[in-house]
Design goal:
Distance between the termini: 18 Å
Helix content: 10-25%
Number of domains: 2
Organism: Aestuariibaculum suncheonense
Keywords: Signal
Number of strands: 21
Protein name: Beta-lactamase family protein
Radius of gyration: 22 Å
Number of helices: 9
CATH superfamily of the largest domain: DD-peptidase/beta-lactamase superfamily
Shape: globular
Strand content: 25-35%
Order of helices and strands: HEEEEEHHHHHEEEEHHEEEEHEEEEEEEE
Largest sheet: 8 strands, antiparallel, barrel
Length: 439
């Protein structure tokens, strides 16, 4: 299925691994510069060791329209990494006996289905069964609009329940929006104020806060999607995701947050242990991100055209963060390259070759494709000499020609092979293949 999935696993290979003193920063610079030169990635990365930044680099533009280049201090929307901050706020409130993790949410939201069975802990670990509102078909028609708590609650209530509370785990942004409201009710302060008072100021973050409308003059960057060229994305209003995804930051600030969190500067050891306890793939605001034999904890994020990841490898005292405001590449491969450089593992600078096609060459591929294997249709169109594909309920993506009748979509590791004479298309992704027929 064509879908932007921010990978939660970087690479898992069971072999010894330790921090390398042979950190090839020149090669890593070359790797990232190559991505920039080929319109594959715009964004920033940072790595810290023992609490000190050992590498940081920004490439691309913060604002293409005004030709503003990104710098190390450019601020990006971090999407669901915000959940890690929210989880810290909730667990800190529990430490201070302001909240009980086992309290059911009917105290605050009696109108939610199963509210008398759903606890604060269930929200934290995605075990509530509450429908994920960002899966709504009409989500992209209203996500840019200001929403009050009452309006968001109505949307969440209408979504209902998708499974019995605590019977399993399933990712839902609704959980963390509700946690944001609970925090605001308990402390009688805005989420933004709590973030600043409990996390930002105590550990000295300088570029982290709840976002508003993007302001390039404040070093806040826009986000873009690549469809033959970089096209600016719409802006989600902060009132929609709030503690589920409304924070803006930099990779350097994220590594500082990561170092503080996993060194015990934000939470007591017992609370941190609860946060890191993974069940059915989820901890509380974090999940495991393994790299070879090292086990990291962190989170990924995606909002509008932004994508992000941060992870801490406590045993090695290494933290890593990447935030992108435009990608035409698989960001997981970038993470692997950065960490490979840090740990002294082999990685290769990509080589990009193009297979040039005219607009007329693309006509034989155009159409609607359906498969008997999955209930998904893919509409193939073109924009001048660029082939585009759109799967049911998903954005339009530009495909890159690699050979005769062959195309790829780097962001999701997908390849497409057409047979115009038979009017078929085969999608290769994740080790599998799905055959589509033109309708």
């Amino acid at each position: 299925m064509i879908k932007i999935i921010l990978t939660t696993t970087l690479l898992l290979v069971l072999s010894p691994l330790g921090f390398s003193q042979n950190f090839d920063k020149v090669k890593l610079d070359n790797y990232l510069n190559t991505l920039e030169q080929n319109n594959k990635f715009m964004g920033s990365v940072a790595v810290s060791k023992n609490g000190e930044i050992i590498y940081t680099k920004a490439i691309g533009y913060a604002d293409i329209e005004n030709r503003i280049k990104a710098t190390e201090n450019t601020k990006y929307r971090i999407g669901s990494i915000s959940k890690s901050f929210t989880a810290v706020l909730v667990l800190k409130a529990a430490e201070d006996m302001k909240l009980d993790l086992n309290q059911t949410i009917d105290k605050w939201f009696p109108v939610i289905v199963n509210a008398d069975r759903i606890t604060v802990k269930h929200l934290l670990s995605h075990r509530s069964g509450i429908h994920n509102f960002t899966n709504n078909k009409d989500y992209l028609s209203w996500n840019t609009q200001l929403k009050t708590e009452a309006e968001m609650l109505e949307i969440i209530v209408e979504g209902g329940s998708v499974f019995t509370p605590d019977s399993k785990a399933e990712y839902s942004n609704s959980n963390y929006v509700l946690l944001s409201y609970i925090l605001e009710k308990v402390f009688e302060k805005s989420y933004s104020e709590l973030l600043n008072e409990v996390i930002v100021k105590p550990i000295g973050l300088v570029h982290t806060y709840v976002f508003g409308k993007i302001d390039s003059s404040k070093n806040e960057c826009k986000s873009y999607s690549f469809v033959g060229a970089w096209n600016v994305e719409a802006e989600t209003h902060f009132t929609v995701p709030l503690g589920a995804g409304a924070i803006l930051s930099t990779p350097s600030d994220l590594t500082k947050f990561s170092d503080a969190l996993f060194s015990g500067k934000l939470l007591k050891p017992e609370s941190l242990a609860i946060m890191k306890t993974v069940k059915d793939g989820y901890g509380m605001g974090v999940f495991k991100i393994p790299f070879y034999s090292s086990v990291g904890y962190g989170h990924t994020g995606g909002i509008d055209g932004f994508s992000s990841v941060f992870s801490c490898f406590p045993d090695d005292n290494i933290s890593y963060a990447l935030i992108s405001n435009g990608t035409n590449f698989n960001n997981n491969d970038i993470s692997i390259a950065v960490l490979s450089a840090v740990y002294g593992k082999t990685f290769e600078v990509p080589v990009f070759t193009s297979y040039n096609l005219t607009s007329g060459d693309l006509d034989k591929y155009l159409g609607v494709y359906a498969s008997k294997q999955i209930p998904l249709k893919i509409i193939v169109t073109k924009d001048r000499n660029t082939l585009k594909a759109q799967a049911t309920g998903q954005p339009v993506f530009a495909l890159e020609a690699t050979d005769k009748d062959k195309f790829k979509l780097n962001q999701v590791g997908a390849k497409f092979e057409f047979n115009p004479s038979e009017e078929t298309m085969i999608l290769f992704q994740g080790g599998g293949q799905i055959k589509f027929m033109k309708e």
